[in-house]
Structure to design on (379 residues):
């Protein structure tokens, strides 16, 4: 990786110029959709083409575009018939939708501890929580690492459970030759701007090989209509429809996705190589390698996380703390957590996680500057 003189300005964690190179494309897309004689602004032919593009990319049975990654999870849970009295096993560490979507359909999230290094759900911890009320496992890929989907797939099959794959952050990741999003009965992606295939707005998709689940999700996303007979409502649905402007924009940006993912992977590999010796000093990078890796966020575990964050800021590097509380400790979800529950790895992750910039248009000089800032942290 070539090194040049680093600029004196702070390197932001969320880049304000994320779509600067796509400004003309975005303006053209808005005009194209707005002036189309069809005047179709949601769930039009562009959305259908985007769904088909992703379906072909993934080798999936169906892809259904919807309003967000969060509502994608809700649509799957509803379509799977998960409701009051049911339990869904989720990681104790992660984003709020892992719990609030389950609670939103009336079911109970059951929190399993995570692996101390990869930070994804521990299959053994999950299996220990299965009861007659358990209806689904909902693992999430976290930061740079996919969950152990082969073990979780076998676990779900063995116990007759639905496997719902929260792959919102993992588009482009592949584990054992199989893409993220295709391991479960259904998976999801999110296109919020900071994701690896983010766009200038909110959106998501459901990915599934189950035709009945797909048919139900399609109806649920559009007020329970079947897409053929307008104003005939077969189900109590939601408004979770996909925007034609976002569909057109993503269609036109898709050819550059592989290049952007490769750049993220290159940066992540450089970080991991340079940070691995720091593990003996209390700063631990994610596991090396490319199998089952995603590069949405690059996250360190630091015993003195807050000191490291201040050190980086003093060196002009912005960083970000994701999920400073485990889900069962959040006020909104604590009532659902087992009163005698103990999630030591999730609690440690919440204390130690610190994420670094890894977006694809970082320059080599900026990457080296970030790297050296971490490496000069006093131990």
């Amino acid at each position: 990786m070539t090194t040049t003189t680093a600029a004196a300005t702070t390197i932001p964690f969320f880049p304000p110029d994320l779509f600067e190179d796509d400004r003309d494309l975005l303006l053209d897309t808005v005009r194209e959709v707005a002036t189309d004689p069809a005047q179709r602004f949601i769930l039009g032919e562009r959305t259908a083409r985007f769904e088909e593009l992703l379906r072909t990319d993934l080798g999936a049975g169906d892809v259904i575009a919807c309003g967000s990654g969060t509502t994608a999870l809700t649509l799957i849970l509803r379509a799977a018939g998960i409701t009051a009295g049911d339990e869904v096993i989720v990681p104790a560490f992660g984003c709020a939708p892992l719990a609030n979507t389950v609670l939103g359909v009336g079911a109970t999230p059951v929190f399993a501890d995570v692996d101390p290094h990869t930070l994804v759900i521990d299959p053994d911890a999950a299996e220990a929580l299965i009861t007659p009320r358990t209806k689904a496992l909902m693992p999430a890929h976290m930061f740079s690492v996919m969950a152990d989907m082969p073990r979780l797939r076998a676990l779900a099959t063995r116990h007759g459970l639905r496997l719902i794959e929260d792959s919102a952050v993992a588009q482009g990741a592949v584990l054992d030759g199989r893409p993220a999003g295709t391991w479960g009965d259904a998976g999801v992606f999110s296109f919020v701007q900071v994701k690896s295939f983010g766009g200038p707005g909110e959106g998501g998709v459901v990915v599934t090989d189950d035709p009945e689940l797909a048919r139900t999700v399609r109806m649920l996303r559009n007020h329970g209509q079947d897409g053929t007979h307008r104003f005939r409502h077969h189900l109590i649905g939601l408004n979770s429809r996909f925007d034609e402007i976002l569909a057109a924009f993503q269609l036109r940006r898709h050819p550059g996705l592989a290049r952007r993912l490769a750049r993220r992977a290159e940066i992540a590999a450089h970080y991991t190589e340079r940070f691995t010796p720091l593990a003996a000093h209390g700063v631990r990078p994610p596991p090396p390698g490319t199998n089952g890796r995603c590069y949405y966020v690059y996250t360190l575990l630091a015993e003195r996380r807050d000191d490291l964050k201040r050190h980086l800021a003093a060196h002009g590097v912005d960083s970000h703390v994701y999920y400073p509380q485990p889900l069962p400790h959040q006020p909104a979800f604590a009532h659902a957590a087992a009163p005698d529950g103990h999630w030591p790895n999730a609690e440690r992750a919440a204390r130690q996680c610190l994420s670094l910039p890894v977006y694809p248009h970082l320059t080599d000089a900026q990457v080296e500057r970030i790297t050296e800032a971490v490496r000069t942290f006093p131990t």
In short: Residues 60 and 209 are 6 Å apart (CA to CA).
